[in-house]
Every structure is written in structure tokens, then in C-alpha cells.
UniProtKB/TrEMBL annotation:
InterPro entries: Bact_RF_family2, eFR1_2_sf. It comes from the Bacteria. Pfam families: baeRF_family2 (PF18844). The lineage of its organism: Bacteria, Bacillati, Actinomycetota, Actinomycetes, Kitasatosporales. One of its GO terms (molecular function) is hydrolase activity. Keywords: Hydrolase. This is Vms1/Ankzf1 family peptidyl-tRNA hydrolase.
Length: 368
């Protein structure tokens, strides 16, 4: 069964569009049953803190039920509750995160978005000269959908009356046919999980034929990388290689964004940075990719209204424009909310990232 987290942009957009205030929880779970009581006690300590902070009892009860139902378990439970119910909950496999509890008008999505960056949609293809095994990972998935592709041609056997040259030509022709079938199946697999990353493993010659027969659009738009492994391997080492390669790709994509930010800083370019300028661009729906720093020590505030165009650095800015019904929350969370509501991508950066946007907030705009 596929273990997939519901972290799609549409799901998160619906979440930030819902009325708050929200309680956002990232809770480290414990798989060992003998520690279940200790883990439950740790949650109750957090719940007591939320009660002191004025969270309504019905919302707190709904969160408590959801947390305790998830125990024992591994990884992090991310839950977002408001108005007496858990509006969204998702289990994030991986290392402990450290318990985080935030309350405010906007759900605190930065850790979830950062986790999503570490688990992009991707396809792993283990190929040989007769076909391939495909592993399809949707965004946020930790267990794959599996597909097997058998090419139309059988392996060519060497017969006594067949010359080496004729045998080689027939074999190569067979491998080409099989690679074409794998390329067609791969195109469908990448589309199925909306993957932008393809990792190839297996027979070197088969990989060469496969890349040759991939559609030009895939070779242009999909990041294709190599890992070692074969169809007959048990997959243990492959898993570690895939994880390492995805981490490398994450760094590459961050570097590409930072390089684009720098290149587009020239007059007339598409970079926007700084708090006020970025909020203004988000309010106008101009931002294509938001770059925002996840710094727990950053307590700066931004203000927003019901409409995505109502976005302000200070509440007095809104008063001058006659907007009311404002709510204030952490700057980064408000910026992420605006990005999701206006169809912008979000890239979460570490604090102090060299080359990052001025004031830790910026992005690439759709137009100047």
C-alpha cells in the first residue's frame, strides 16, 4: 500500500483559505509501545500549555483525539485544527523534528513545505535490455507504486549459423524496441505522479537506449540523474542512493533559484525582495516563486484581510486604503498563505542562506 502524505498545493490552498484561528502542531511520535504512555504524557503537557493560552476546549479535544489515535507511530504528525475540529492532518515519515506548537490566524505550514521539498515527486527506473521496473513516488510519498514493463522482443540467443555482426545487429534492434516500450511507459509514469525527477539505474547500454527514445519534452523539462543498481538487487542500497540523490537535487534547485534571484536583480528584472516589496507583489498576484526563510526566531508580523489582495506590512497601511477586518500573524506564514492563494510556488530557505533575498523574503515575479 502506498504511504502518501496529502501535501498537494490544492489541499494546502484550501487549508489557508479556511477561517482561523488555527492551532498548528508538529508532534514527534514514538513507535515503541512501551513508551506510548510517556509519549501521550508529553502531548498532554503541550495540550495544557495550549489551554493556558486560551485555545477553546473543543479544538483541543479534537487535537488530542487525533494525536493519541496516531500512537504508536513513527515520524512526525502534522495537524492543523480550528473551530473545534482538525481541518487537516498528515503523517510525515522521517527523523524527529522536535515538537512545535503554534497558534494564530494562519496555519504554520513552513515545516510541512520544507518536508515536501525533501520528498519531491519522482520516478526510479531500473532497466535492463528486456524491459524495466518502475517505482513511482508521488509528492510526499515514501512507498512507491510499482510498474513492470516487458519489451516486445525477447533476448536474442546466439545460434551456430549466425555471424557475430548479424547477431549484434539483431540484438541491438531488439534492445531498441524494448527501450522504446520503456520510454513510453516512463512518459506515462512521470505524468501519473506529476514528477519532475527521473532516476535511472541498471544496465548501462539499456539506459543509453532509453534516454535516446525519451520524448524531447522529458529530456528538456525533467531532471534526469543516474544511480547504481539493477532489477535483480534487493533495493536496500538503492534506497540510500535515491535519498542521497534527492538531497543533492534539492540543493541544486535551491542554487538555481538563488542564481535566478541574483540574475534578475538588474533594473527591469523579475526579482522582488524585501518585506514591503514582496508583500505588494504577492497582493498583486505577480509572484511566481516565493523564497522565504524559515527562522523560528523571526517574530516579524504582517497583516492580511479576507481577499488575497489585502496584504500589508503594517496595519496603518491598510487603514490608509480603507481596508478593515485585518488579522496579523508571523510574516513568513502570511507570505506563504498569500503565495498559495495566488498560485505561486514556495521555496523554503534556511536562515542565513548566502545569496538569499533581502530581509529573508523575496521571489521571482511572473512579470515586472
Amino acid at each position: 500500500m502506498t504511504t502518501a502524505t496529502e501535501t498537494g498545493t490544492g489541499t494546502l490552498r484550501d487549508l489557508v483559505a479556511a477561517p482561523g484561528p488555527f492551532v498548528s502542531v508538529y508532534f514527534d511520535r514514538e513507535a515503541r509501545p512501551q513508551l506510548a504512555q510517556e509519549t501521550a504524557s508529553r502531548w498532554r503537557g503541550l495540550a495544557a500549555r495550549l489551554e493556558r493560552e486560551g485555545v477553546d476546549p473543543s479544538t483541543l479535544d479534537a487535537l488530542t483525539d487525533r494525536v493519541l489515535q496516531s500512537l504508536p507511530g513513527t515520524g512526525v504528525l502534522a495537524a492543523f485544527a480550528a473551530d473545534g475540529r482538525v481541518r487537516h492532518a498528515v503523517e510525515l515519515p522521517g527523523a524527529p523534528h522536535g515538537d512545535v506548537v503554534e497558534t494564530g490566524p494562519v496555519p504554520h505550514l513552513l515545516p510541512l513545505l520544507e518536508w515536501r521539498q525533501e520528498h519531491p515527486a519522482h520516478v526510479v527506473a531500473l532497466v535492463d535490455r528486456s524491459g524495466a521496473d518502475l517505482l513511482l513516488y508521488a509528492e510526499g510519498s515514501t512507498e512507491p507504486l510499482r510498474r513492470t514493463v516487458d519489451g516486445p522482443d525477447d533476448e536474442i540467443g546466439r545460434s551456430p549459423g549466425l555471424s557475430q555482426m548479424r547477431f549484434q545487429h539483431r540484438a541491438e534492434d531488439s534492445w531498441e524496441h524494448n527501450a522504446t516500450a520503456v520510454a513510453t511507459a516512463l512518459e506515462e509514469a512521470l505524468r501519473e505522479v506529476a514528477a519532475g525527477v527521473l532516476l535511472l539505474a541498471g544496465d548501462v547500454r539499456a539506459r543509453q537506449y532509453l534516454v535516446k527514445h525519451l520524448p524531447a519534452a522529458i529530456r528538456k523539462d525533467v531532471l534526469i540523474s543516474q544511480v547504481s543498481g539493477s532489477r535483480s538487487a534487493d533495493g536496500t542500497d538503492l534506497d540510500a542512493q535515491v535519498a542521497a540523490e534527492l538531497a543533492r537535487i534539492r540543493g541544486v534547485r535551491t542554487d538555481q533559484l538563488l542564481r535566478q534571484l541574483d540574475e534578475e536583480r538588474a533594473p527591469g528584472g523579475h526579482t522582488v525582495e524585501g518585506v514591503r516589496e514582496t508583500l505588494d507583489a504577492l497582493a498583486a498576484g505577480r509572484v511566481r516563486t516565493l523564497a522565504v526563510t524559515d527562522d523560528p526566531q523571526d517574530t516579524r508580523t504582517a497583516w492580511f484581510g479576507p481577499e488575497s489582495s489585502e496584504l500589508y506590512e503594517r496595519p496603518e497601511d491598510a487603514m490608509r486604503e480603507g481596508d478593515g477586518h485585518l488579522a496579523g500573524d508571523r510574516l513568513a506564514d502570511v507570505a506563504v498563505r498569500a503565495a498559495l492563494l495566488t498560485g505561486a510556488d514556495v521555496r523554503v530557505l534556511e536562515p542565513g542562506t548566502p545569496g538569499g533575498p533581502f530581509q529573508g523574503t523575496g521571489g521571482i515575479c511572473r512579470y515586472t
